[in-house]
Design goal:
The structure is a homodimer. The first copy, chain A, is an alpha+beta fold. Chain A contains 5 helices and 3 strands; from the N terminus they run H-H-E-H-H-E-E-H. Chain A has a domain of 67 residues: Arc Repressor Mutant, subunit A, CATH 1.10.10. In chain A, a hairpin with a 2-residue loop joins strand 2 and strand 3. Chain A is elongated, with a radius of gyration of 20 Å. The structure holds a DNA duplex.
Chain lengths: 119, 119
DNA sequence: ATTATACGACACCTTTTAGTGTCCAGTCAA
DNA sequence: TTGACTGGACACTAAAAGGTGTCGTATAAT
């Protein structure tokens, strides 16, 4: 193991580990959904303040935030000694689009059920 | 009366060990999303036919279907020697509701961005 | 009656996930 | 300057996830 293992996956630009996470995976974890909720309400929050809202340690929360960041659901910047996080809801659009496709199926189903009941 | 179990939102339901899976987790896996897609298009499909659509073995597909079933996204019944699966899109409503809450945030954000651009 | 198909139930393996604790470096406050 | 916050970077671990192969048993086909 090299001390600084640089791994670009597909010719990514920039320095940081831009792992490109699946949004579906990102929102699958309840802790991460709670983080999203907190950031939606709290505008911009530092790590330690977010950590206060959980029973787990700072490291764990930080990791969750990293995953959210990789899914681009969150951005962060350093202010003094703290790192403040902000929600970016845009990637949720993908979920919405995915759902939209199936919406017609549960409408069809509802109509079907209604017809059956009317017989 | 349908031969397979009818389910309601909060109500208890019939025989099996209903593990109650998180819908968010259920849709996090791409294989399971593809299964949902196939079942949406295919009405009612047996396991072996679903398995044909993947490179993995039958056992793996079956496990994914179990998870979908535990999330109540899928129902199944035995016809002769085959087990046929059917989509139940209803639980997707939970995802939709969850998204709806954040929709206002990305609208606010869009408005904010628009205002900035107009300056 | 025999053979092929479909699938549940296991046992098993590897990788990922979600958490921990420790160490070190900036930053702020006294 | 000293000392307390804040958090990044590891190293490590237990459990869950996602696969595999095999065996036994209904069912269907010949």
């Amino acid at each position: 193991m090299t001390p600084f293992s640089v791994r670009f996956k597909g010719g990514r630009d920039l320095n940081s580990t831009d792992q490109k996470r699946d949004v579906f995976v990102a929102i699958a974890d309840p802790t991460r959904r709670k983080l999203i909720r907190l950031l939606a309400e709290g505008e911009e929050l530092p790590l330690h303040e977010l950590t206060n809202q959980f029973q787990m340690g700072r490291t764990a929360v930080s990791k969750h935030l990293t995953i959210l960041k990789e899914a681009e659901l969150v951005t962060n910047r350093k202010i003094g000694r703290e790192t403040r996080f902000r929600l970016n809801p845009a990637p949720l659009q993908e979920i919405k689009d995915w759902l939209a496709f199936y919406e017609k199926f549960w409408n069809e189903r509802a109509i079907l059920l209604k017809n059956i009941l009317e017989e």
